[in-house]
Protein 1
Amino acid sequence: MKLSKLIVLCVLASAGSSFGASGIFGSYINVTSSNHGNIPIWYDAQAPGGGRASDPTDFSGFAFGSFNPGAGGVLNLTGGEVLTFKNGGSDVTGTTLNYRIYTAGFPTGSHNPVNIGFTADATFADAAGTSYTGTGDQKWSDSSLWNPVNLLSGLTPGDYEIDIYLEAASTDGTLFSNNGGSNYKATFTVVPEPSAALLGGLGALALLRRRRI
């Protein structure tokens, strides 16, 4: 009886070791803006735990400011990064950044997916410059490798929100980095072009001043 119980316990222990787990332990969003030097900047989405080499600005709640596309205003989505882990029999097979833009306060429309390529197994440094060495840790990252997504394209003057979540496909199902279901949201404003009438008026005013001089 004791021998049979021991055999059962060994079988169960062996079966348990064959199960694995996977997940996302960090994510970042890369944006290039004319209001911030026209250089790609990493923003925190899901901040990884532990001490980090640097602490990027949170994407959620960030205000990118006002843009006039006709006057050279730029607001581009230029990358994403997902940090994943896996162990046992689990595997992560791909990651995606999903974004949408809508009038502030009125969330509508579906998200647009952009695939993020595999970068490295541990050991690697993430977007914040922190190194990770855990067995099964992986980095999926693209920055300025995509065709930049012009977030201002086709928008009329008004206030807008950028709504983003990231996900990973795995043998355990779809894994999400989505701010607890609320997604990561930042804001910006598109300002109108000066009207032709206003420009004409300014020109006439300048001409009048020159005549007076």
Protein 2
Amino acid sequence: MTQRQANLILATVSLAWGTSYIFMKIAVEAIPTLTIIALRFGLAFLVMSAIFSKKIIHVDTRTLKYSAIVGALLAGIFFAIMYGVQTTTASTAGFLTSTTVILVPILQVFITRKLPNSKIAWGVLIVMIGLSFLVIGEDFTITTGALLCLVAALFYAIHIIVTNRFVRKVDALQLGIYQLGFATLYVTIGAFVFETPVLPNSAIQWTAILGMALFCSAYGFVMQPIAQKYTTPESAGFLFSLEPVFSAILAFIFLHENMGLQGYFGALLILVGVLIANGSSRKQPNMA
């Protein structure tokens, strides 16, 4: 797989994840938060395990250990997002979570002890300005939902970097599937401790859950580690930041959400910053 092919796959993953904010907004109105996440990851794990049963049945301890780590990060990401989306719009939540685009290069600086090149630096600066238009309201306050989405972005950034390292050492498909299983385990325990789990009771609720499970999780979180093996963490971070562009378009079409002039201007700046920075990363395929 070439880096261009990997980046194309990651772009489709971003599209899949962009739909999740729509589904979450629909489901969270009637189903407890942790229950939604447990159903989402549980169904995705069962489906992918059934499809790739022969490829995942023989798994080593290292893969399970790494899967437990990225699964915990995955659970943390969606715990923060699900509570965040309750007090902000789907569009805004998507763009706030895209602060991952800033955090990945920043964290990479500390890991590699090398400063990013000028294009990445300019891209990060433009994205930061765009995010300020989304995060800070007209009264210069930041909502709890906004802060939770920013926490989710930090977990996303760590997840991207950690995944990029792990897929060099273990089977990417097994890692992608077992992380769903561990995320399900963690969140299910939390659901029974802190909530009263209930199943969806309408067609629209089941559609939202199945959409998140099959399209956003089964496809998105299994293809992510496979494609990430052939690209850089910075490229992955910037491509994932296209996710809110898709979520904003879909939220406008299906939920009739409007972020206002300030919000759309911020979104435009984020998109510009992503395009500038993403054009700077080049890497040959790593077949390790």
